[in-house]
Amino acid sequence: MISYARQTNEEQPDAAPPPVEEHIAPAPRVSVQAFCETVETAAAVQAAGEDRRLGKAHLKIQMGGMAAATEAYRSAPTPNVIVLESDGRNDLLGGLDQLASVCDAGTRVVVIGRINDVTLYRELVRRGVSDYVLAPVGAIDVVRSICNLFSAPEAKAVGRIIAVVGAKGGVGASTISHNVAWAIARDLAMDAVVADLDLAFGTAGLDYNQDPPQGIADAVFSPDRVDTAFIDRLLSKCTDHLSLLAAPATLDRVYDFGTDAFDAVFDTLRSTMPCIVLDIPHQWSGWTKRALIGADDILIVAAPDLANLRNTKNLFDLLKAARPNDRPPLYCLNQVGVPKRPEIAATEFAKAIESQPIVSIPFEPQIFGSAANNGQMIAEISANHKSIEMFLQIAQRLTGRSETKKQKSSLLSPLIDKLRGK
Question: What is the pLDDT of residues 384-400, one digit of tens each?
Fold first, then answer.
């Protein structure tokens, strides 16, 4: 019997999350070989292989279905994952038994079939098949099936990466990202980390009033040392739920990185933190493009002028083309209503982008300037400021979570707590 890792979808809760909020964790570096019966399925698998979540997987597609797979592995080792399409005309169970005789232990099998029968499904599970997907399939179905083989159901919320980038320099993207991360940690009660990727000029340390001796530069320049324990030592604690991976913000060396320079850091953070907020600097390089495309959700911060409109449109077009199976990026307008400055109205902005801004944050230099100079968040300066609700709204959309309700306190709360303790 093949010792497949079993993962079934049987007896799942009735209420499934809406597709737009679905979070699929990326697959690790694995080999995947697909044996298809139809051109349509082969095309779907090929499109899945181009999805960012299978970016590290090595995918090979062949035609011939079950018979071709059995013949291929008589003289070759099996990969980590085999995807098999069955058109239902042949004996599926008998074919799996033949495949088992030539399959290596530990190989995981995903079957794409056309028979919608629970008895067959249970028999496939009994034989150790990891997943059964009903044809016809789309690229996202293949992505979901393969990625879910390597993520436990209870860990689906872990490792969500949110990338925040400005459409233009000076639009307040860092301020927005830091306050949104604060809302994620405080109001949604999620453990989160802010990774300041502007190593030369990053402001996260200033905004959170932190001056850690180590930070993200230590990890990037020592990729062979990056693991969970090493990253934990680099994190600076801001609140109970919020940590910071700070930028050095020094100019004693240049920060020229290769395309995959941050991969090890991001992979390690994914394995330990439910939410990672990337504060991406306004520059265009291989690694910034890779960080944006590889993120689970993206927020673009723009000011209401022509240059921001052009850059936002360019970012939208590129990211939608590079992430066809993800929801489009979100964007917000910031610094709206600067006195005597001509601005592009939000309606005109939305018409050009073909998407509405999630929020429009007004220009209020007094409170935002005070927060920046004091090393505080807006919520710490003014607990009832209207922008706080906007930050929470962004946090909810980016994480797919609703607000965690806080228990109301009263004058008798201390006495009641004391009595409960007794």
Answer: 999 999 999 999 999 88
